[in-house]
Specification:
about 170 residues; DinB/YfiT-like; DinB family protein; DinB-like; mainly alpha; about 55% helix
Amino acid sequence: MYTSSVQQNILAELHHELAQTRRVLERVPYEQADYKPHPKSMSLWQLATHVVNLLAFNTLFVTHNSRDFLDPNAPKPGPTPTSLEELLARFDEYSAVLRRELEASSDEAMTHKFKLHRGEDVIFDRPKGTAIRIMGLNHSIHHRGQLTVYLRLLDIPVPGLYGPSADEK
């Protein structure tokens, strides 16, 4: 349902996209973790872990005003999961934290600036609501799309995300 609340619209979109992302992650075969479709590509497991770790990064947009990639004390994701069960548990944990923080936020808070930078080099300086949409949701959806290509190349049925996939017809 449409609402004029930026925060509520982001939450609704997040709810949908998290459900779809989990469906893709459930199909990632850990036994093929090292698979790469190209030498410049991330491995299957690196990509799946990145998709999950982006949730913690997205939470920073809600809970902080900036993130410096050069800050050695900045929050970092935990160690690389060593099984699909660990990956899904981290996904569920990070999803719950992101939802909780976004639910506790407000439309007014979504207008506050978030600056993403590497020292003096500013990568992104926009309102938090925009940061969540562009660097958060869009970034995650992009990598989830890459993950579905890996699944296709490995001949693993791809779930339909916005309607049925070729595997579901």
